[in-house]
C-alpha cells in the first residue's frame, strides 16, 4: 500500500479513500496550532509587560517577584512554539530576535568583576551605564533607550551572535541578574533596588535599567505580534504550508526532527552535560531550564498529534500526522507515538527534578551521576524518536531531509544511515 500511496502524496492527488484525513486538513491543523501557540505567547508577554510596568512604577520585592512569575508563565506557550522553527523560514529567520542564547550579558548591564569574553569586545560594554559609545567606528547616542535602539543597533552588534540585546533572555537577565552559583543551587538574585530611584538605587543607573527592561519587553510584544500575523489567515507562515500541503507536511516533520535531535537533544542538553557548564543552560539566569526543555518536548508531540492546550485550558485540535501516517505505515505511527510519549516522560522526570530543587545546572555538575542518567536517558529518547520521524518522512513519500545535527551528539547523522 505504501508504494501506491507515496506517489499520490507527491503529485497532489491526495483525496483517496485510503487516507483517514488529507494532507490539506493536516496542514490546516498545523497552522491553527501555530497560531494559537503564538497568540498565547503574545497574551502572556502582554501580561509580563503589565508586570514590568508595575515594577518600574513601584519597585519592591513583591513587584519584582510578580514580574518574574509573569516571565516564567510566558515561557510555557513560547517553548511549545519552537517545534515550528526549523521547517518554516518565516519563523527561523525571526526567532533570533526573541529567543537567542547564550548571551554576553555584560553588553546590557553590570556583571561580576571576572566576567568577560576575549573574542567579543562588546561583552562588557554595559550600555545601561554607557549612554554614548562607539560601534564599528560610529558614535552611538544611547541616551534614550528605545525598542528601536535595541533592535537595530544593539542586537547582534558587530555581527556577533552572543551580543543578544533583545528577547526573553535579555529580559530574564534584567529581572534575575547573573547566576553566580555555577553548578550549585540558586538562580540570579538581582535586588528590586536595582530599579529604585534616588538614594535607594543599587547597581547604578536604575532609571536606565528600568527603561531598558520596559523597552525590551515592549519589543518582545511587538515581535510576537508579528508572528501572530504570520500564522493568521493570509499570513506568510500559514500561506506557505497550506498552499503546498506536501511542503507543509515536510515543514512539520522537519521542525519536529531538528528540535528533537540537534537542538534539544544536542545543543541544549548533551553539550551542557559534556562541558559541565552552566553557561550552556538555556534559561540560565532564572534556573527555569528544566521547564523550557519540557515544553519544547511537549511542543514536538503537539505537532504530531495535532493537539494544543491553550493557557486558558481550551484545546485546539484537528486532523493530524498521527492520523495520516498510519494509512501508509501503521507500524511507524505506533512506534513514533510511543517514542513521543517516552521522550515527554523523560523530560518530565528532568522537570520533576528541577521542581524539587535539582535544576538543570545542578544536574550537569561534575560527579552528579543521577543528573547524568536523567539527561542521557532524555537525550537517548529524543534521538530515538528522531529516527522514527525520519522514517515517517520516507513513508509519506516526502523529500528526504537532513535534520540539523550537533557536535555534542556521538557521530551526528549516523543515526539516519
Word description of this protein:
The strands form two sheets. This protein has a two-stranded antiparallel ribbon with strand order 1-2. The chain has a two-stranded antiparallel ribbon with strand order 3-4. It is mostly helical and 417 residues long. The protein is globular. Residues 1-17 and 411-417 have low confidence and may be disordered. Helix content is 57%, strand content 3%. It has 14 helices and four strands. A hairpin with a 2-residue loop joins strand 1 and strand 2 (138-141). It has helices at residues 2-11, 23-57, 61-81, 89-99, 147-154, 168-176, 206-231, 236-243, 245-275, 289-305, 321-324, 330-355, 360-363, 369-395; strands at 132-135, 138-141, 307-309, 315-317.
Q: Give the SSE order as H and E letters.
A: HHHHEEHHHHHHEEHHHH
Helix count from the secondary structure assignment: 14
Most strands sheet: 2 strands, antiparallel
User: What's the Cα radius of gyration?
Assistant: 22 Å
What characteristic shape results from the CA principal axes? Answer: globular
Find the count of extended strands (DSSP E, 2+ residues): 4
Could you give the distance between the termini?
Answer: 24 Å
Strand line-up of the largest beta sheet: 1-2
Low-confidence parts, pLDDT < 50 over ≥5 residues?
1-17, 411-417
User: In what range is the share of β-strand residues?
Assistant: under 5%
Oligomer: single chain
Amino acid at each position: 500500500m505504501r508504494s501506491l500511496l507515496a506517489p499520490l502524496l507527491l503529485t497532489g492527488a491526495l483525496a483517496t479513500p485510503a487516507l483517514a484525513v488529507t494532507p490539506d486538513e493536516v496542514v490546516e491543523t498545523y497552522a491553527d496550532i501555530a497560531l494559537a501557540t503564538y497568540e498565547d505567547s503574545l497574551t502572556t508577554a502582554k501580561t509580563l509587560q503589565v508586570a514590568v510596568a508595575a515594577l518600574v512604577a513601584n519597585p519592591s520585592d513583591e513587584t519584582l517577584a510578580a514580574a518574574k512569575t509573569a516571565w516564567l508563565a510566558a515561557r510555557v506557550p513560547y517553548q511549545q512554539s519552537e517545534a515550528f522553527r526549523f521547517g518554516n523560514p518565516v519563523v527561523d529567520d525571526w526567532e533570533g530576535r526573541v529567543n537567542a542564547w547564550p548571551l554576553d550579558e555584560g553588553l546590557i548591564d553590570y556583571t561580576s568583576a571576572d566576567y568577560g569574553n576575549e573574542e567579543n569586545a562588546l561583552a562588557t560594554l554595559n550600555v545601561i551605564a554607557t549612554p554614548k559609545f562607539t560601534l564599528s567606528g560610529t558614535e552611538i547616542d544611547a541616551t534614550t533607550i528605545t525598542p528601536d535602539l535595541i533592535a537595530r543597533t544593539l542586537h547582534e552588534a558587530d555581527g556577533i551572535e552572543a551580543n543578544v540585546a533583545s528577547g526573553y533572555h535579555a529580559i530574564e537577565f534584567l529581572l534575575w541578574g547573573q547566576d553566580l552559583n555555577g553548578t550549585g543551587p540558586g538562580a540570579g538574585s538581582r535586588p528590586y533596588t536595582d530599579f529604585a530611584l534616588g538614594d535607594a538605587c543599587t547597581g547604578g543607573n536604575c532609571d536606565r535599567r528600568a527603561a531598558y527592561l520596559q523597552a525590551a519587553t515592549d519589543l518582545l510584544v511587538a515581535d510576537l505580534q508579528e508572528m501572530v500575523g504570520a500564522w493568521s489567515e493570509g499570513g506568510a507562515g500559514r500561506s506557505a504550508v497550506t498552499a503546498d500541503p506536501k511542503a507543509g507536511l515536510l515543514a512539520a516533520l522537519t521542525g519536529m526532527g531538528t528540535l528533537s535531535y540537534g537542538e534539544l537533544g544536542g545543543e541544549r542538553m548533551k553539550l551542557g552535560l559534556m562541558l559541565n557548564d552552566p553557561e550552556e543552560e538555556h534559561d540560565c539566569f532564572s534556573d527555569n531550564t528544566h521547564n523550557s526543555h519540557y515544553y519544547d518536548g511537549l511542543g514536538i508531540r503537539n505537532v504530531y498529534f495535532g493537539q494544543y492546550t491553550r493557557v486558558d485550558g481550551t484545546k485546539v485540535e484537528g486532523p493530524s500526522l498521527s492520523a495520516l501516517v498510519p494509512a501508509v505505515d501503521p507500524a511507524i505511527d505506533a512506534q513514533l507515538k510511543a517514542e513521543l510519549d517516552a521522550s515527554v516522560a523523560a523530560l518530565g522526570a528532568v522537570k520533576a527534578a528541577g521542581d524539587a530543587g535539582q535544576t538543570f545546572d545542578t544536574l550537569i555538575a561534575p560527579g552528579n551521576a543521577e543528573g547524568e542518567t536523567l539527561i542521557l536517558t532524555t537525550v537517548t529518547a529524543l534521538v530515538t524518536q528522531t529516527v522514527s520521524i525520519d522514517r515517517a518522512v520516507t513513508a509519506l513519500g516526502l523529500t528526504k531531509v537532513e535534520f540539523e545535527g550537533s557536535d555534542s551528539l556521538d557521530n551526528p547523522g549516523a543515526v539516519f544511515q
